[in-house]
Write a structure and sequence with these properties.
Blueprint: E1 2-7, H1 12-24, E2 28-31, H2 42-55, E3 59-65, H3 69-75, E4 83-85, H4 89-97, E5 103-107, H5 113-124, H6 132-147
Parallel strand pairs: 1-2, 1-3, 3-5, 4-5
Helix pairs in contact: 1-5, 2-3, 4-5
The structure holds D-ribose.
């Protein structure tokens, strides 16, 4: 499993903690930054991580901003990206089982590092259930095609 991670300035500290955890767990990780608390625009990082997930098979993205909302809105503009904003593990589990989410977004001003890491572990450790959920994901893909989004 390949993982890309990115944050804006508001998410930088939490990103570092998540990166440290994932590296210690031997995950293959591409860190797109940012690498300081200098002001950064979340759509730029969402674009980088979404691009990685579009290109790489069996990959996931993690995006962190102050609320997780901006990252979620921005990432979901990219074809094939299903980004889910989660603030607890139950939603993270369902985002994978039901929605086949491939990007997790987190709000650093909403949750602390312990909860964030629980959410990340749940997200990365849960499989898509397929079945009836596949039909629904296909309808989302069809909507993307009809809207001709990139
Ligand atoms: C930055 O202040 C903040 O707006 C951003 O991190 C994010 O919360 C946007 O959704």
């Amino acid at each position: 499993m390949k993982i890309a991670i990115g944050s804006d300035h508001a998410g930088y500290r939490l990103k570092d903690q998540v990166v440290e955890y994932l590296k210690a767990s031997n995950h293959e990780l591409n860190d797109y930054g940012v690498f300081s608390e200098e002001s950064a625009d979340y759509p730029d990082l969402a674009s980088a991580v979404a691009g990685f997930v579009q290109r790489e098979e069996l990959s996931f993205g993690i995006l962190i901003c102050g609320t997780g909302i901006g990252m979620s809105i921005a990432a979901n503009k990219y074809k094939g990206i299903r980004a889910a904003l989660c603030a607890e593990p139950y939603s993270a589990r369902c985002a994978r089982q039901h929605n086949d989410a491939n990007v997790l977004t987190l709000g650093s001003r909403v949750i602390g590092p312990g909860l964030a890491i629980d959410i990340v572990c749940t997200f990365l450790g849960t499989e898509f259930e397929g079945g009836r959920h596949s039909r629904r994901i296909e309808k989302i893909s069809l909507a993307e095609k009809l809207m001709n989004r990139k």
